[in-house]
Amino acid sequence: MLRAACGHLALAHALQGDLVVAQHWLDQLDGATPAEGLEEVSGTGAVVARALVALGRLDLEAAGTALSGLAWIGDPVLRDELWGFVAYARCELAVLRGDRTAALHALDAAVAAHASTCRPGAFVPDLLLGARVDLLAALGDGNRARAVLDEQQGLSLLLRVRRARVDLLIGDVVAARTHAVRVGAVSTSTRHRVQALLVEAVAEQRLGQGTDAAVAATRAAELAHAQGLLQPFAHVPLAELRHVAAGAPVPGGPTWHAVGLLREVLEEPVLGVVGEAMPTTLTVVELTERERAVLGELASTPSLDVVAARLFVSPNTVKTQVRSLYRKLGVHNRDDAVVAAYRSGLLRD
To answer: HTH luxR-type domain spans which residues (predicted)?
Structure first.
């Protein structure tokens, strides 16, 4: 069972972003002789751990190769035991590699197939919700990414750091900074702390707080460099981080050494090869409460008179709200409005 323990320990540390420790346990696993009949037991955890370590280093080829290793695990029960972690790794690879729509469909299928074990509020469901937000944001679908987060009753740290990043990309910089600082203040996860600090750095830079931006960015670089963790840097606007690095050091800010480390991380060649996984900005459609009510009624009837009667307002009032709604959705008729609303997550069955 030593190999099984090593595989699961490697997975636990890889999820936290502690790549050095995860790699240590993978090395221990590789050096242990498998007990007869137990080789497959250690398989899935180790496969996902190898993939997450490779993703953390932005070695997409190695991550893909690792995940292809699931095929040799012949027992479907063993192969499926850690299905949520497998799905998460595949989604995060797709965020960086670009096959995001296919990954989103595959995630939906995996969650549907394991609905009985996917309880809200547990770690794996939150992990997969985070992966869904990452995919939607990478696709530029700000409304749906935000809707996933809005639907949650309370946010775990894993989801709060996504909230911070989505808020940053849609331009709600103050909210992004608040969520990021909150995560950084309490999280013990290297991955979450680096993610939060990078959002905080960009937010502070946009708010004109150069010193605070430099402090957050260099702290992120120090944590990331110690573990070889580059993945979070691909999820934020790199040009803005480089601007922070170029302007540092500043009085009261980080030391020359810390700034040099930040610049070293930002100049990693693999960051240039992989590029930015997320758009610099996310466009969202902001509807008033009344426009949302009108939209909901339009989904069930084309008659503006019926909509007016249901909402207890005049037909002329509804016509004004519909014109505003169409303008925001970029459409010219009711059918296109309903389609656009469903696609953007503004309408849900």
So the answer is: 280-345
pLDDT for 152 beyond 90: no
Per-residue confidence band for 71, with pLDDT thresholds at 50, 70 and 90: low
Q: Which two tokens stand for residue 341?
A: 């609303």
CB 258 within 8 A of CB 222: yes
| Contact (Cβ atoms closer than 8 angstroms) between residue 162 and residue 149 | yes
Give CA–CA dist 246/285, Å, rounded.
34
174-210: pLDDT as tens digits:
999 999 999 999 999 999 999 999 999 999 999 999 9
The length of the chain in residues reads 349
DSSP one-letter string for 145-195: HHHHHHTSSS--HHHHHHHHHHHHHHT-HHHHHHHHHHHHHH---HHHHHH
Is the pLDDT confidence value at 211 over 60? yes
CA distances in angstroms from 312 to 73, 232, 315, 325, listed in the order given: 61, 49, 9, 18
More confident residue, 287 or 140: 140
Measured CA distances, 253 to 8, 216, 233, 258, 299 (Å) = 40, 10, 21, 10, 54
Q: List, for residues 232-276, the tens digit of each pLDDT value.
A: 999 999 999 999 998 877 666 778 888 889 999 999 999 989 988
Confidence (pLDDT) at 74 = 47
The CA distance from 47 to 67, in Å, is: 6
Q: Model-level pTM?
A: 0.86
d(CA 131, CA 297): 32
Task: Report the C-alpha gap between 132 and 34 in whole angstroms.
Answer: 36
What distance in Å separates the CA atoms of residue 339 and residue 343, rounded to the nearest whole number?
Answer: 6
